Amino acid sequence: MAKKITQKTKNAMPLQDAVARAHNFEEVALGYPIDLAVLEAQRCIQCKNYPCVAGCPVEIDIPKFILQVAERDFEGAFKTLIDRNVLPAICGRVCPQEEQCEVKCTLGVKFEPVAIGRIERFVADYASLLKFTDDTPPAPPTGHKVAVVGSGPAGLTVAADLAKMGHGVTIFEALHKAGGVLVYGIPEFRLPKAIVAGEIEALKRIGVEIKTNHVIGQTFTVDELFTELGYEAVFIATGAGLPTFPKIPGINLIGVYSANEYLTRSNLMKAYLFPVSDTPTIRGRNVAVIGGGNTAMDAVRTALRLGAENAYLVYRRTRQEMPARREEVEHAEEEGVKIMMLAAPTAILADERSRVRAMRCIRMELGEPDSSGRRSPVPQQGSEFDIDVDTVVFAIGQGANPLIRNTTPDLPMNKWGNILADDATGATQKPGVFAGGDIVTGGATVISAMGAGRKAARAIDRYLTNPSADGYSPTDV
Asked: What is the reported pTM?
């Protein structure tokens, strides 16, 4: 007999007050308390086909861990999660579940889907509070060595999976802290850095070695990881960190930033704590952020918290086409962000000291859909207007850092500098080299990068232990 539906809507996430949070960097979403998590888990109807699992890039047994929460078996739920997801506290906070597992939820056909991400976060936080750990021992050592370039979501996932398989794994991270985009890109108020540090410490406990301040392409090349350091396979997960700027006048003025720099200064280098932190802060009074994705939302909400009197988000399409998560847009508006739709910058205007004094924009209207399926913005001639600003932040996409490309000439890449790798295995045409995450796909989500890391770990294990199995070859791309 089908379970009777008693609650048609999700239980709301407790939040920090909007006025208060706009002026601090404490976490916005406070998390479900125990009883609310159990109540939400009890909304799951435990349907037969489990479509939610098909929507999860890392293949979590979602119905099982939700049932365990409904039955208050929180340690069991944690073990179910950690069996497939090495970063549950992170994914529960920043993954777009509404576009992946939750969109496939059977309950969501007629009502609101189960809040899978919120329950996942609860389980991870509860496990941290009670110090639950993954006590599954790794497989016996195989003697094989793998180098992982980059410590973002893809790199952390492939490293964890390979370590559990018994392989020796070393992560090489260019920056002074591990975590990649999780530490330099996502603000403290959305993903506290202590949580990232905790997840990384868990990887160290299973034997993953992490070397920071190692820039592959300078400290060592990819080839030198094989020839000088003796690694048998290399997984490249360097992400998409090269900023993109439009070709408009004034782009080099003082006060113009990429979202990458703007967020890195605040998140990784703790500029928001200046002068306690050594990093000078970027405190604009009137800040415009260009873009409509989650990075743009992070930047404009950071601007508010750094003291901006006016924080504008300028987006060339409408809310319907905006790629940012809906809840992030709602949180931004609640906090006081001014969203300007159907507008795009045409020039940055300077004062007498070559600093930003204003941004000239033009009104847009939507035309026919482009390759992404979104309607293309078309400028309306004669509709220019100026916004008085002193800081402009561009969050309009990022490309691949050319360092690996320039030092590994036999590694095939596409015209944008992304590594060409097989979707199912991460294998490239360079023997022993695998790749995954944003360096392959361009900017995407944390969980999709983790999914790529999981697939690559299986392929690397097969490459190391039985390369001829099933006719597999790392050059089959």
From this structure: 0.91
